[in-house]
Amino acid sequence: MPTxxxxxxxxxxGGHVAREAERRGGLSxxxxxxxxxxxxxxxxxxxxxxxxxxxxxxxxAGPGSGSGSGSGSGxxxxxxxxxxxxxxxxxxxxxxxxxxxxxVCEGVDVLLHCASQIGGxxxxxxxxxxxxTAALMAEARRAGVSRVVYLSTxxxxxxxxxxxxxPEELVRNPGSPTSGSRAHAEDAVLAxxxxxxRPHLVLGDxxxxxxxxxxxxxRALPGTVEGWAARTSVITAQDLARLLLGAGxxxxxxxxxxxxxxxxxxxxxxxxxxGAVAAVAGPAAAPTAEDLTAVRARELLAARGIAAQGxxxxxxxxxxxxxxxxxxxxxxxxPDFEAAFKELAExxxxxxxxx
Length: 355
What we know:
The chain is an alpha/beta fold. The protein is 35% helix and 15% strand. The protein has helices spanning 12-24, 122-143, 177-191, 210-220, 237-249, 270-281, 294-303, 310-315, 323-328, 337-351; strands at residues 3-7, 28-33, 89-92, 110-113, 147-151, 162-165, 195-199, 201-203, 224-225, 231-232, 234-236, 259-262, 268-269, 291-292, 318-320. Strands 3-2-1-4-5-7-12 form a seven-stranded parallel beta sheet, with helices on both faces. The protein has a two-stranded parallel sheet with strand order 6-15. The protein is globular.
């Protein structure tokens, strides 16, 4: 029975990964969390409590969240309810405290690294994401972990229009301290022979940033912006969990790359995405027939105190080619966006009542 350790197991994506591993069965789980043990997990391990989190990159937070960095782009991951994984061991550790990581990887076969420090000071991002990941990789090497998979973000590319882009065709140009430190974390993982997955927009139970941020923008604007014609890559948290787990367990010979984009193969038009969000966000988010210029939209957002950099995400293509990861992992993507969002709609409708 392989032993899999999941960092950030009480967070949005880490929680989905833990639940996916539990559904798959035949795995021994070790859940690393700095704040609270995932619901139903067994008692804490030997490491001390810490402060590593899994949340939205300020360069990728929902555009109406107010947490965006001035030069970032995209959206990111929010906090989830934690994983329901009864009987599995919980390890408390702090990525900013390398001493607390000592021994956490003993007996681990696969490490799925889903924890990151998001926001806060540049020093905190560097301590957790860059130096913390490097320390964790040193522990993984010392313990003989056979596979490491790191959950990164497409925001390491910074701004730009991306059309059917593959990692090998792009240059990283992170636009925030968080994105920059996550790029350093990627470097540490790749130097240790690990695998990096870069999702773009992640939707699902526990999302506190993507759809809420889009709802704020819709409520602030009286109409569409340049027809909302851009295309973007999305993935559900459940599908992303399947890819992370699959990358951790796949035979080495099946992996043709060390960095993959992780999204549904079919991009979604921003018009389709925002139409779905408007349907669950209430009448105030319903667009009118007016079509605004991007300049006018930025003025309106600024007047409402909403960071305008997220608008770039909605008016230029951010479509990342993810075919290789699905092919290499011999995994079939879940439903397309419209079908998947129907399953998530009621949960989002409840979540947006307070937005």
